[in-house]
Automatic annotation (TrEMBL):
Residues 11-105 form the Co-chaperone DjlA N-terminal domain. This is Co-chaperone DjlA N-terminal domain-containing protein. InterPro entries: DjlA_N, TerB-like. Pfam families: TerB. SUPFAM superfamilies: TerB-like. It comes from Marinigracilibium pacificum. Gene3D superfamilies: TerB-like.
Length: 137
């Protein structure tokens, strides 16, 4: 189970990823809900953070996320970036802005193992697709 700090970080990374291309798609929202369920992030946590991110400077939020991620384990870093990649791929492709953000984190900032990251992303994708199928209207 994550700490509130971990959950806050995942919410911020979701926002940065989903809004990187200028719009948040419906699939990105559904995959975010799946991530919240999987990570046991409460609605209260989301509502206390997400609405306020839109008013903040994205560069500041990203810098804050990087600083916070540096204090986390490699395992958490991989999990977090894998969630970003899963959400970015939720609509079948990854926009250039999303790819640049994810590449910066996994390669330049944290030198994460790509094969491990892709394995975790694949697990997250399966979970999200199952979540979407169950919760489809």
């Amino acid at each position: 189970m994550n700490t509130k700090s971990d959950n806050s970080l995942l919410i911020k990374l979701y926002y940065l990823t989903a809004s990187a291309d200028g719009r948040i798609s419906e699939n990105e929202k559904v995959f975010f809900k799946a991530m919240c369920e999987y990570q046991e992030i409460t609605d209260e946590e989301v509502e206390s953070i997400l609405p306020f991110l839109m008013a903040r400077n994205e560069t500041e939020v990203l810098d804050e996320c990087i600083k916070n991620l540096k204090t986390k384990s490699k395992d958490f870093q991989i999990q977090a970036v894998a969630w970003m990649a899963t959400i970015a791929n939720s609509d079948g492709f990854m926009a250039q802005e999303e790819w640049q953000l994810i590449y910066r984190l996994y390669n330049k900032e944290f030198s994460l193992d790509l094969s491990e990251l892709l394995l975790i992303q694949k697990q997250h994708m399966k979970y999200c697709l199952k979540y979407k199928a169950v919760h489809a209207a």
